[in-house]
Structures
1.
Amino acid sequence: MNAEPAPDIQPDLFEALFNTAPDAMIVVDHEGQIVLTNPQAEIMFGYGRHELLGQPIEVLLPERVRLAHQSHRAQYMGSPRVRPMGAGYELTGVRRDGSPFPVEIGLSPIRTGGDVLFAASIRDISETQRARQALVRARYDAAAGQVSRLLLESPSYEMAVDNMPSLIATALNVGAAAILFRDVHGGGWKCRASTGIARAVQKIVCKDLVESRWGADAQRLEFGGTGIEGMPPEFACTRAALVDGLFKDAALVPLPDRRESMGLLLVLAREEGSFDHDKMHFLQSVANMLAAAVQRSRSEEQLAHAQRLDAIGQLTGGIAHDFNNMLTVISGNLQLLDATAPDDALTREALESASRATDRCAGLTSKLLSFASRRPLSPRPTRPTQLLAELREMLGTTLGERIVVSATCPDALPAIDVDPSEFDAALVNLAVNARDAMPRGGRLDITVRGEEASESVDAERRAQVVFRIQDTGLGMSPEVLAHALEPFFTTKDAGKGSGLGLSMVYGFMRQSGGYMTIDSQLGYGTVVELFFPATASSPSEPESEAAPMLRVGHETILVVEDEPEVRHLAVRFLRSLGYATLEAGGAEEALRMLGERPDIDLLFSDIVLGRGMTGVDLAESARRQHPHLPVLLTSGYERISSDMDGTALKRFALLPKPYRKEGLARAIHHALEASHAPG
């Protein structure tokens, strides 16, 4: 028995499937006119029921692609075939309100009698695309975390840089990556690390970047045609070397620094359009992290260098203090011998030679104390033009005819608080160093300018006056430059330099409230810049005062000194001048004697008194007991530690060590006279 034919339900089934399909369904004719839509299409594109019928299919596409789509549609209709969903186009649809959204399209021809219609199934892939982007961004975030850990866990950023190009290339799935840094000595670029780039190509890349001018923003570089979009014309060699079958797309991201980019992150890809927004964002994040690591490393090096110099300064100051005590004893005993020695030529020559050696040693300790910032300065407001005018002629004479000296300074610059004599000594030190670096002659240019200080400086000291000292000498290598400020470091032959010139200038600048910078390259000379804070005070002429005559006294003086030999020398000096003396080896003993002896007319004390109270503490305690007691302090340096009250120290007169008998006599005279002055 034959089976009964199946009922004809195809039209109803087609309509049910068409209307209930989860994707938008649109049918168009040969003219591209919409002849049928399902409810999902109307909902997806925001149209009402049957509003799309009769409209061209291009109404659902962005206006910029409509004309091109007509051509593509005609080609497809000429040879139609099935393009299933997922194998069709990924396009952008446009809703009725004009908002775009990503879509995926499948196409299929439909034969109805003698006509052929074309059905398009359309799927909104916004959520799918967002999910893809989320996965990609999560992968980039994980790679950025690896970069961050690499920078934090590596012993130095140099080691991290070596491994970073391969990590970047793997994360972005690109052919090559390189990290280039500015060559501070050669003026160009150096490829620090790379992957996928041959050494020959590295040289070409660096060569082309030498004269290129890059901004602070990341740039996507599109290779193609006769030019490279986004690349300056100076980058021509790289186009010729890299585009020929090797790479089709590139990105260049500067490594930001305070003033200009310190380097570049270069990434090359073999496919066009490889660098979308997410990849560029990842590269910018990596560049920022790398630049921050470099800046942190530099700051740590500068801090370590400053701490090393400070430690050396403290050690130097302590040595200089002890040495000044010994020089005081040597110089004082030479003076005592000079007063009683036989008047013969041999004895006189020996005493004079020993005195000259003592003076030279005193000059050496003076330089040491300047480096250690423990030598008292006498700053006063001074015009830069005045400082330079007084130096110009002296430098010309000091440096000789083979050195051309040029000094320029605008008249309108503000005054600076500076000790003129120490400033002269600092400039002369720099000039002598420059002369020694120009054995065949050369040029020394001194220029002065004004500029605003960084925001970290107090508001009232924002203005700065900068002295720039530039020579055309041999220059210094990076290794020598790294140690240039350290005391006793010198590249000169034995006997031709103490190695204290630059360190003395460094100490002078610290004491003056400023700072210095040095830039030098082998074969290109040296540039030293001295930054002084400007002052609003008006310059005034220093008061001239005639030195008092050496005076014989009769007052009683309490000498407080923990070094017995120095104390005995001071006592002998004072007794030879007619003064009565009392001795104490420490502050406690001195306070007891001040309480027992009301006839003491002056307290003469060293600042350093071993453990316990300092000479400043003793002077303040003595003044509380005897408000009008004259006080004279002495020391091999001005202050012992940063916690000493500098304001209290300035209330008392100070006699630096080593001192001569005449200097002690004048200081005692001033202290006694000041106590008798009215008011």
2.
Amino acid sequence: MNFIECHEEPIHIPGSIQSFGYLIGIDAESRAITFLSRNISDIFNIGNLYELFDRKITDFPESFQGIIDSEIYSSLDKFTRRRNETYFDKIFISGKEYHFSVFKGGNSIFLEFEEVLLNPDKRISNKYDNFYIIDNEKELWNHLLETLAKVVNYDRMMVYKFMMDGSGKVIAEKKHEEMESFLGLHYPESDIPKQARDLYLKKRKRIFSNVYADTVPILSKVNENIDLTFSASRAMSPVHGQYLKNSGVASSFSVSIIIDDHLWGLVTCQNIEPKHIDLEDRVQAGIFTTLAANAYSSFKSKSELNYRLELNDKVSQLKAEFLKHNHLFDSLRESKTEIKNLPEADGLAIISDDSITITGNTPGLESIAKIVQWALENTKDRIYVSRSFLKNHREELDLSENAAGIIIYFVERDKNEMLIWFRKEFDEHINWAGNPEKKVGVFSQNGEERKMISPRTSFRIFTENIKGYSKRWNSRNISAVQAVRDLILETSHKNYNAIKSLNDELKKVNEELDSFSYTISHDLGTPLTVMKLNAQMLLGNLAGDSEKSKNKINTIIEEIDNMAEMMHDVLQLSRAKHSEVQLESLKTAQTIKKISDNAKMTYGSPASEVIIKECPDVLADKTMLHQVFLNIINNAVKYSSHKEFPKVEIEGTEEGQSIIYRISDNGIGIPEEERDKMFKIFNRMDNAKKFKGNGVGLSIVHRIMTRIGGSVDYESNKEGTSFILTFKKPYI
């Protein structure tokens, strides 16, 4: 006897369907019948079912005329272009109307039928947009259940939300008065194990009309398991069937709640008596559920946007306070209360070397020192988050209830500099729908007895007390910690008084530079264009024997182009100083490859060999990073292009908290006496004057690398030059 865990049960290949459905499977290429449900003879005029195998539907017009005449079957190629996409039609079989569904799965096309049922109790309005005027989660899901009750109306209807660990909770309920309420109850992960959740994400509407009815086996020409994932009538697993029987219901219907392509929850309906819902009504229930899910996602997004704006305001206020101090940890200590409150923590510890500053409810200093040592030895991430820290390390670290949950942010791991937010123990209890403890039972599946996890026989409320946990750190709390991290990165180790003094001194110079940049771009741009056009017109009007005059005019046009390029480079230099910097983790490989290919074309050097090795991610501004590599790689290709075998090599390496890129060429080299002038604007070496350029590119690179917290340097000799770009290593 085999033992199978719930999550291992092959629920997508039960080998049978429910009795309300009828199924025929045909080969997607040959259209020959390959499998069918045994009950199709109940609605189609068929003698020996086995005679159908390897034959086509069209071979039996006396039995399948309704199918043959349907729009879907006559255009089967059109309706089965995409896999697992279901299309619906209605056909008459022996005088009765049936729903006819078609979808392609694997190498088969599934033809599924079920009788059309009229619903005299159906009562819905056309006000579908009511969902979008509700901005309260509880009201929204209650409104969905009220709406669905007018379409499907089960004895009990619930909205079931999945938790992060796969367990679930009933967050909304509509039921008959005499029924016990399940609102607020939790259900263990094993009630809806992973493979079931995967199926709910794929097949979003699922009905079990009668858990006590016999299932209908599928007959197949070949002995293989048929994947019924997308079949509306797929039989339920024996474990699920027993679960429903134990809970006192005979029928169930569920609709998946999908948000951001994830299974957020289910609308789950239960009926004491067997109950079948017409296919059209099930589809309509799915539409209403989708509208509610979209409305929920919409108002959650608005709420998140408002939170982000409020967080930005608070961080801006913190930034203003930081600028009042010369040292980072002076700023942190002065703003400790605000920093504690940002992620809604109960306490905060600021650790710098052996110094510990605390505020709010925290463990004792000795306990904090143990936590610091534990964190240095046992964590690798820049930010560590736990809500069960007390449960896991109570005795080991001598923790108090104030350290049930923690978030640690390492400012400088090597210097033992970190921030630790604390949350106290949360007196939590969970009301389960029955004891969630697993028990083993014996079930029959496909004629074979197997041991499997048995569903609960009682759903009486079981209360579990939770110890050693804090309230859960949510995504907003983590975002707040990340905002503090970004603020520290931006202002870390800066001499704020010196910066303020420099800003005062440079303010006037900056204004003059801005004025100059915009003047040359605007006031000089137009006359240069006019001059070039007139020169080109003169060139076109010269007689054929005026070669000397043509050369002079061509020289004028070339100098105009040089001046325009110089204006462009000066503007780039200004932008490199004044553009807003947005530091983020960036990949470089594609940027480097594209720039290298373009450089070979720009400088007419297709023979240049550009070798690109490891390209680790860097912390930089996306636009500025492109400008840096553009200038350095262009120079490398340009100044090596006159060599017999021009070669450029690009490689990034990781060194501590830095990423070092070396861009090496075998070009003309840089004389040692030029070192002090290399990054000055308009500087050009004597040996470079035969190459086109104006000496602004390296000034742009130097300015950008300084702004993003990096540096640029070089090594050079007669065999070529290596430029060295030092970036900060991404933190997360």
3.
Amino acid sequence: MRPPAHSTGPLLWAALAVPVAAAERLGLERTPLWAQLTGLAVLAAATTLHRTWPATAFLLAAAPGIAASPSLFTLSYGCALAVFAFLLGLRGTATGVALLSFAAVAAAGTAKIAVRQVDPAAEWLVLMGTLLFGAVFPWLIGRYWRQSRELTAAGWARAEQLEREHRIIADRARLRERARIAQDMHDSLGHELSLIALRAGALQVAPGMAEAHRTAAAELRAAASDATDRLHGIVGLLREDDEPAPLAPPGESIAALIERAADSGLPVSLRRPDTDATVTSATTGTTDATTTRTAHRVIQEALTNAAKHAPGALVTVEHAQNESGTTTVKVTNGRPRHRPGPAGGGTGLIGLRAGVTALGGSFEAGPHEEGYRVSASIPTGRTPTPDAATPGALFTSARRLAHRRVGVAFGAAAAAGAVLIGGAFAWYAYTKTHAVLTPAAYTALKLGTPLEETVPRLPDRTISDPPVDRAPTPPPPGTDCRYYRASGELFVSVDHFRLCFDKGASHELLEKSVIPRPGTTDQVQEQRREWAR
């Protein structure tokens, strides 16, 4: 259970106030009491605003650090800077707002460094490094954490939606299966009833039949046609307009289908260049059952319609396979010789069109010369292609893209940090090693020597941050003092030399002294003073 928002603010402020008090208590940083109280008040304001105005809270948290040190590197407010940068990324602030906030902090620090004019290059490198590792990296971590939580929540929501869709699809599949079974019954029974009607019609016109028998045959023919219409209407209610027609059951070849229709009295003939009853794939050399069954279904439906709507008309079936592997079927009937049955709803042809186009083929049905033609072109070895990627794949792709973006951002920030650290170290080594005055050169300097005679013996640079507080005596009044290191060792405390020159026209060396490193005893300091004299 999460604590309420009104209770986390004071706890956060108390946690961020600990480094401020500890740094002063341990003597790591020396700041006036009023500056500490002002910094704590600013942190309290940032804590209050971090939920509604995270960018403003970050800028408030960076203000005490900039005030205490132009390079933003402080023990008192460094933790607060990182925390509010993390919250800036966690609250989902726009990337442009966050980058503008970082740029504003960098501009404020750069302006203060330019005003101080104390080793600006080193100070600016430290500022950029502190901003990168103390603000940009925490912001990226918060942003990554937020994106991970959002993606996880979206994943669970998507899983629930997929489960609901799965139940809907399962229910729809059951309904489709029922409709398919009904359609199979319609196709099978309808075709047989049509053949029964043909046989009854043949009996009706057969010579030598009694009038009562002719009347019975006519009634049988009308009953078969009426049963076919009723069956067609009932099944039509169960089907959708765009639902593909079910394939004919395997086991009966196209030649057998036409032969059975001809035996029932339908004047039908088959034209086909090949003699095989199956369709062979031109690319794989194997029998394509889907294409064969689709062609069988097209011919069966076309023969049923011809027997019903064009009784007595000559029917021609053309079945061929091109070199490209495409199977073509054409069923053409001429003018009906007897009175046609009632017009149907056309759902059978609609189902055929959907089934053929689902395989990537084409389907046409309409008047042809004095009769009617049904034609279909069916590619071999084709299956329906999904229109879009699955939701799971889209979610996985979005998650990978989010992780990739965060990874690229981390990599770019790490590369920039490596460049800044390398540049800061190189500048630190350069400034320290080029401000070394050896003890021998220091001893050779004589009081009263003019500055122009002393400059050739001095290093190229001076110390930008001299340890003035450790000097044994204050500088003489009216002098300009320069500070140098006594050794070129890096990252360790060393002795310093102070040379003070007269500000008058002569610029003579009036005083030189040794500033001992921290932690030396009074006895050693006394020996160094004697040695300096």
